[in-house]
Amino acid sequence: TQSNTSVMNHFILVHGLCHGAWCWYKVVAALQAAGHRVTAVDLAASGAHPARIDEVHSFEEYSQPLLDVVAAAPEGDGERLILVGHSHGGLSLALAMERFPGKVAAAVFAAAGMPCVGKHMGVTTEEFMRRTSSEGLMDCKMLPINNNHGAGVAMIMGPNFLARKNYQQSSPEDLALAKMLVRPGNLFMEDPVMKDASLLTDTNYGSVKKVYVVAKADGSSTEEMQRWMVLLSPGTEAEEIAGADHAIMSSRPRELCDALVKITNARQV
């Protein structure tokens, strides 16, 4: 039961690698129609954000737009922040949860990288790469970039990779949109933040309610890989969505919206 009808849910949606706020357009409309406040964030050098990928020098800088939105949210009653991360966006969620645990009512990882206390953040990306052969990356291209950390690479998702690994259950229109709008993305694997096993703490990150939404038809981060991450963080609740490909917000937007609303309702006592 909802004891305080004035409490507003504020969903903050965080896209995955190479994507932007644009990929949430169906979920934004559905959540708003259900009466919720929604902010879809463009991380640095993503979506409509003005920076270029080689101008973003750290994972923290990449995640800054999310950190800014959470920092600006009012403390106390009136608004419950629910962070929703997709794919690589889950790692930016973890950074925000560690930094502002008192502000986040719940964090939802939708087919996302979900790090755990006691291991470095890059462990989920390393495991994904371990399970994905170079053939599995298909026509993705690696683009040499230079930033303050020196020479590195950004990834550009190829059209076949998008079609076969991300959007295979989605509409042709959503696939066409993604092909037009994806930008180069940086996994920041060499970033010190990714290698710091003491970064995420029980007191902060571990104290925030976590829910994992498993995309059962994910051709990229398999159901097995998703459940492996759930097991790494005991106490994480799991929801599953049948027929959802990796682009869960495109292939099953209504089901994802229903799951998000159910999660928030369960949190209101």
Automatic annotation (TrEMBL):
It comes from Aegilops tauschii subsp. strangulata (Goatgrass). Gene3D superfamilies: alpha/beta hydrolase. Pfam families: Abhydrolase_6 (PF12697). It comes from the Eukaryota. This is AB hydrolase-1 domain-containing protein. PANTHER family: ESTERASE PIR7B, METHYLESTERASE FAMILY MEMBER. Residues 12-259 form the AB hydrolase-1 domain. GO terms for biological process: jasmonic acid metabolic process; salicylic acid metabolic process. One of its GO terms (molecular function) is methyl jasmonate esterase activity. Residues 1-23 form the signal peptide. InterPro entries: AB_hydrolase_1, AB_hydrolase_fold, MES/HNL. The keyword Lyase does not apply. Keywords: Signal. The lineage of its organism: Eukaryota, Viridiplantae, Streptophyta, Embryophyta, Tracheophyta.
